[in-house]
Design brief:
Layout (H helix, E strand, L loop, with lengths): L2 E5 L6 H12 L10 E6 L5 E2 L5 E2 L2 E2 L8 E4 L11 H12 L3 E4 L4 H6 L7 E2 L6 H7 L4 E2 L5 E3 L3 E4 L4 H14 L1 H10 L26 H9 L7 H7 L4 H12 L3 H19 L4 H8 L4 H12 L3 H8 L8
Parallel strand pairs: 1-2, 1-6, 2-5, 6-7, 7-11, 8-9
Antiparallel strand pairs: 3-4, 10-11
GO molecular function: DNA-binding transcription factor activity; sequence-specific DNA binding
Keywords: Transcription, Transcription regulation
Protein name: Helix-turn-helix domain-containing protein
């Protein structure tokens, strides 16, 4: 069981704190195995958060009982870090445990020198300040998050959810990460530095497209044209194209390819059938076509994806 500590502190921002709790602290009784999460502090409370709201958390003397540490935010000013926080977070890192930062939380790791020589990011508002304070960090622009499997930094507040979904995928698999993402109504267009590994879930469709979307999902292994989708939506092709793009911020054809990729990734992770069979069941014309779209959109081949994420030792080429 993975025990998660969410580090609260004076002036912690509530939104980032709530995002961390939603990802790791919400009870999910439908899963036999899930995170055990505590919101903790290393100082006595209660204390004031953003908006001057007073909260009380579990005070701990040590973080040693936890496997993952989430830092929802941290002051961006160059004030010193209290000794207990320095000692505990540094020890946590020294033990090779996983640390995640949301938004300005990267400033704490930067001050402790834990990001030196590593890739990191934070909210774009703090980019120059971060670079000036931590020139030894390899700062990454224009990404939702960076994550190397042990240390992760999200760019902004909501991007912490994207990072959290990736962590769930690594811990529990693609299918469960997709289920959690769908319940959070995650946008299918959000992609980060680990785009090939992040679920792009199917969001609830606008009512005028509901019938067409349901039909596509029920017949995904079959050849499907945008003209057929327009017909199922009872629209002219021109009207369908215009309204679909306005609703989903992409063309219907691009959306269809993404849905096929989602199906293929699920099959590659959970099934041991051949690559050709995965392509067929996902609705691609052939394995070559599927490989092309994997490489173009995800930067990884179907076989490489399976090697990384298949949930069984039995893998067929």
């Amino acid at each position: 069981m993975n025990r998660v500590a969410i580090l609260a502190h004076e002036q912690v921002t509530l939104f980032e704190l709530a995002c961390a709790v939603e990802i790791f602290g919400l009870e999910r009784p439908e899963y036999d195995d899930w995170y055990r999460c505590d919101v903790v502090s290393l100082s006595s409370g209660p204390f004031r958060t953003s908006a001057d709201i007073l909260i009380s958390t579990r005070q701990v003397e040590s973080l040693s009982d936890y496997d993952t540490l989430v830092i929802p935010s941290w002051p961006v000013t160059e004030e010193p870090v209290v000794d207990r926080v320095t000692d505990e977070v540094s020890q946590f890192d020294a033990e090779g445990k996983r640390i995640l930062t949301f938004c300005s939380g990267a400033f704490l790791l930067g001050r402790l020198g834990l990001l030196d020589g590593r890739k990191a990011t934070t909210h774009w508002l703090y980019t120059e300040r971060f670079r000036q304070q931590f020139p030894q960090v390899d700062y990454v622009d224009n990404v939702l998050y960076v994550f190397d499997g042990r240390l992760g930094c999200s760019a902004g507040s909501a991007a912490g959810i994207d990072l959290g979904i990736e962590v769930i995928r690594q811990d529990y698999g693609y299918q469960r990460a997709n289920q959690v993402a769908r319940r959070l109504v995650m946008s299918p267009q959000r992609k980060g530095g680990q785009a090939q590994f992040v679920e792009t879930p199917v969001i609830k469709s606008p009512s005028q497209f509901a019938g067409a979307i349901d039909w596509v999902l029920a017949n995904l292994s079959q050849p499907i044209s945008v003209d057929q989708m327009a017909e199922k939506a009872c629209m002219s092709r021109r009207s369908f194209d215009r309204k679909f793009r306005a609703a989903y911020d992409c063309s219907a054809n691009a959306w269809l390819i993404q849905i096929r990729l989602n199906r293929a990734k699920t099959l590659l992770e959970s099934e041991s059938c051949s690559i050709d069979k995965v392509a067929e069941q996902s609705g691609f014309d052939n394995a070559t076509s599927m490989r092309y779209h994997f490489d173009k959109q995800l930067g990884i081949s179907p076989k490489e994806y399976r090697v990384c994420f298949h949930r069984s030792e039995l893998v067929m080429d």
